[in-house]
Every structure is written in C-alpha cells, then in structure tokens.
Write a structure and sequence with these properties.
By secondary structure, the chain is an alpha/beta fold. It is built from 8 helices and 13 strands. Helix content is 33%, strand content 19%. Pfam families: Peptidase_S41, Peptidase_S41_N.
Length: 344
C-alpha cells in the first residue's frame, strides 16, 4: 500500500514511567459475573518491555485474574504488536511441565528463521490448564495477535469467538520510494508453523473462529458458552444418576458410566453440540438407538420463564356416560372394515 509516513514512538525509547503509562493504555482487565476473568490487550508488548515491567504486570493484572474460573482474552482491538512478546502470552496459558515449539518465524531482510518456544519458567503463576480460555477476535485483529490466536486454537487451549481475523502480516517495514514523501509498506516476516503443519498459515486468509459471531456480540456469546461449559459436570453427573436408577439394560450401565466419565467435552460450545456428542457416544456404547438425550427449552409464561417440568401435562381422557356419546367416541378412535379377500 502507498501511504504518507506516520511516526509512532517506540515503547523501548521511552522512560520506564512513560513505558508504563503506554502499557496501561493497551491492557485492561476485570473480573466479570460468574467469576470470569476478562483481559483486553490492544498491543502485544515486546520482550524488552515485559522484562522491565513484568513484575508490575503480574502484581497489578495477572494475580487478580488467577483466581477466576475461566478467562476471556479480548484481541478484537489488537492490530499489531511485537513478535518477541508471543512466547509470554502463550506460556502463561500453557502447563509448565513441558516446553512446546509453537512457531517458526522467517525474516526476509536478514534471511533468518527464529523458533518460538514456550518458556520453561514464568514470573508468577500459569493459568490452570483445567480452566477454559476464550479468545475474542474481530475483522481488525491482525499480525501478532492473529498468530497468538492461531497458536492457542491449534493447541486446543482456547475457543475462538468472533469474526475471521484480517489475515495481516507479523512485521511490516516502510520503504521510502526514491526521494518522495511516499512510502511502501511491505510485509517482511511470516509464520511458518509448526502447529499448522507448515503447509498453511493464517496470513492472507486470517484465523477462522470456532464460533462465528459479529465482533460487538462476541463477549456476550463467549459468556454464554462459558455458562454452558460450567454446567457440564452437573449435566454429566445427573445423566449418570438417571442411567443408574432407570435404564433397563442394567448390564450395560457400568460401561456407559465409564464412557461418560471419560468423554472429551473440549469442543462443546452449544447445547446442540452437547446433545449430538452425548447421543453418539451413548448409542454407540449401548447399541441402543432408543437411548436419547434431548435439550428442552423452558416455556415462557405471563409471569416469566416457567421453572419445573419441561414436558406438557398428561391429558387423561374421560369416558362419557351416554351410550351414543360412547359409540361416537369409539368410532372416532377406531375404523373397522373388511377388505377384498375377506381380510379384516
């Protein structure tokens, strides 16, 4: 693209106080209803910035989110950042018992490749691998933020909710065109994998969300998904209790209970997903197509949603006393005739 140059101060050229002020503008956090942590990052800080201000970030931001039951990482407004900051964000969401090779970056000007690995140690604590993480994206999410989103998605560490990302570049360089006042913006670095297998990356095409929704509705959708996922253990427990108490093929119950206890619900993001997964699993294990789970929406009443029995009340027919009325009732319920060949 051709554009006039824009000068933006580099964080590393600022004093520590100025660096801190800039960093606070690009990072916001709070704890939402349901004990869901919310972290909005609008610019990915560099390794140098994190090394200087890491203690502040851990004390003032990260520690306040550690006790939450799930985390929303909002990258909808993140259009860039520093490649060297990628390992820090990934590492805080990755278990510390192993190091993982998450990407290889090729830089054209220097003709070099750099491998990106998770960090063996981090300042403070890592976010528990047992807790859900949702990444919010928009059509403006670009560059380094896209790479972080892609890595977390391929690791199956996060559910991506929102819009397909822009499909930008990891690093851009402005080249002056002759002696004019115009500059050419050129992508100079690209991601080579390895989590995506190396054959395809997100650059050019963007990162496709797990759950597509307009960016302005992404947070609301994410919270609904987390509410469902928070209810999953209770749903499975009640299903196990129902099988133990009511299922007639008693000899198959232990196998069904074992299957339910070991099911992987990491990809479940809706009631429809849950019902499909449960039915496929239960029917395969039991070999019984009659064993069905279904979701029933609560009915609305004049005073609000009805709480209690979801099934319609049973209608018990009454038998009329008059003979003619009884005959009419029988005729309405049965049709009798003799077919050709004396077939009743």
């Amino acid at each position: 693209t051709l554009e006039a140059p824009r000068q933006a101060p580099a964080l590393t050229n600022l004093t520590q106080e100025e660096m801190l002020a800039q960093l606070q503008k690009g990072i916001r956090h709070e704890v939402l209803e349901g004990n869901v942590g919310y972290l909005r990052v609008d610019d990915i800080p560099s390794q140098e910035v994190v090394s200087k201000l890491g203690g502040f970030l851990v004390a003032s931001v990260w520690r306040k989110l550690m006790g939450t039951s799930a985390l929303v990482l909002d990258l909808r407004h993140c259009t860039g950042g520093h490649i060297s900051g990628i390992p820090y964000i990934i590492s805080y969401l990755h278990p510390g018992n192993t190091v993982l090779h998450v990407d290889t970056i090729y830089d054209r000007p220097s003709n070099t490749t750099t491998e990106i690995w998770t960090l063996p140690q981090v300042l403070g604590e890592r976010y528990s691998a047992d807790k859900d993480v949702v990444v919010l994206t928009s059509g403006h999410t670009g560059g380094v933020a896209e790479d972080i989103t892609y890595i977390l998605k391929q690791m199956r560490r996060a559910i991506v909710v929102g819009e397909r990302t822009v499909g930008g570049a990891l690093d851009l360089q402005k080249l002056r065109i002759g002696q004019s006042d115009f500059f050419l913006t050129v992508p100079v670095s690209r991601s080579l994998g390895p989590l995506g297998g190396g054959s395809q990356t997100w650059e050019g095409s963007g990162v496709l969300p797990c759950v597509g929704t307009p960016a302005e509705q992404a947070l609301e959708k994410a919270l609904a998904i987390l509410t469902l996922r928070r209810a999953l253990p209770g749903v499975v427990r009640r299903l196990q209790e129902a099988l133990q108490a009511y299922y007639t093929l008693v000899d198959r119950v232990p196998t069904l209970l074992h299957h339910l206890a070991n099911m992987d619900f990491s990809a479940v993001v809706s009631e429809e997903d849950l019902v499909t997964k449960l039915n496929a699993g239960l029917q395969t294990v039991s070999e019984d197509p009659r064993l069905l789970v279904r979701a029933v929406k609560p009915k609305e009443t004049s005073s609000g949603p009805e709480v209690g029995n979801d099934d319609p009340p049973e209608v018990v027919p009454t038998v009329p006393g008059a003979e003619e009325a009884r005959q009419a009732l029988v005729l309405s319920m049965f049709q009798v005739s003799v077919l050709p060949g004396n077939v009743g």
